[in-house]
Every structure is written in structure tokens, then in C-alpha cells.
Design brief:
This protein is an alpha+beta fold. It has two helices and eleven strands. The chain has a single domain (2-161), classed as Sandwich (Immunoglobulin-like).
Length: 165
């Protein structure tokens, strides 16, 4: 029991530091890296974060890697009428001074496909973002409870039951 409490406290302290300070590479600042806990035997998951280009030149998020999944893709989600469409994108262009907030239920997210084990709340995993100019950014993604983020339970159900194209 004491061992679990120590691990939880260490995770909370580390999470606080990551969220407070974020991670930098060149002019790129990344913060608030979170993923949703898996539900049941779910084989896919999603991660969300904020990327800010604090420089004077545009940059491009070219790829993402995480050892927790067999495949990691950048996805975008849009509503076409009352149908949610999710699609993989090759990259995200990030203009100078632009901030991209990946949030549940809208816009971009990182799709974790073929999870090697369930994502459990309170745990964390490493992720690497590769940018054209800023290079590689190593960060830690914190796994949150399913309902902990800003997404409504209706959006959560739609995401879990959606078939990616």
C-alpha cells in the first residue's frame, strides 16, 4: 500500500511539473499531454496536448511515436452535418505564433492504435513528436480517468464507437 502511495505521489508531482513547465524544442513548446484511460478491451486510444510555436518561423509536426501502441497517427475530427468524421493527416502545419490545442471531441488528436496494454488512469508513458525545424520533442503523457477531461460523455461514446477511416 505504501509503495502504491509513493508511486502515485511521484506521478502527481511529475505531472504537475510537466503541466506547469511543458517541454521545449527550439521554438516549439508542448504542454498538457494527456491520454484517456482505456475502457474494457479497447485496442485504440487517443492523446491530447497543446503545441505552441513561439518562434518567428512556421514549423511542421511531421510524426509522433509512442511505445504503448503498434501505430501512432495524427488525426483530425470534423462534423459533417451530424456525422463525425475522423481522418489521419500526414502532418500539422504550425504557423509562427500559433497555438494548437488538441482537445477531446474537436480538431486534432494523436491516435494510439493497437495498444500493447490498456491505458490505466494515473500511469504515464513516453511520446516523441518530430518537427521539421525544431527536431524531436520527448514528453510524458499522463493517463487520465475517462471522464476527467473536458469532453462530455456523449462525445466519449461517439469516439469509442467510431470506426476510423
Amino acid at each position: 500500500m505504501l509503495n502504491r502511495l509513493t508511486i502515485l505521489l511521484a506521478t502527481l508531482l511529475t505531472t504537475g511539473l510537466v503541466h506547469a513547465h511543458g517541454t521545449h524544442a527550439g521554438n516549439i513548446h508542448v504542454e498538457q499531454a494527456q491520454a484517456r484511460a482505456s475502457v474494457g478491451n479497447q485496442s485504440n486510444g487517443a492523446a491530447f496536448l497543446t503545441i505552441e510555436n513561439q518562434g518567428k518561423a512556421d514549423d511542421v509536426l511531421q510524426s509522433v511515436a509512442a511505445p504503448v501502441a503498434g501505430k501512432v497517427e495524427i488525426h483530425t475530427m470534423t462534423m459533417e452535418g451530424d456525422v463525425m468524421k475522423m481522418r489521419a493527416v500526414e502532418r500539422i502545419d504550425i504557423k509562427a505564433g500559433e497555438k494548437i490545442e488538441m482537445k477531446p471531441g474537436q480538431g486534432y488528436h494523436i491516435m494510439l492504435m493497437g495498444l500493447k496494454k490498456p491505458l490505466k488512469a494515473g500511469e504515464s508513458f513516453p511520446m516523441q513528436l518530430s518537427f521539421r525545424k525544431a527536431g524531436k520533442v520527448q514528453l510524458t503523457v499522463t493517463v487520465m480517468e475517462v471522464g476527467a477531461a473536458t469532453k462530455s460523455s456523449q462525445d466519449e461514446q461517439m469516439h469509442q464507437h467510431h470506426h476510423h477511416q
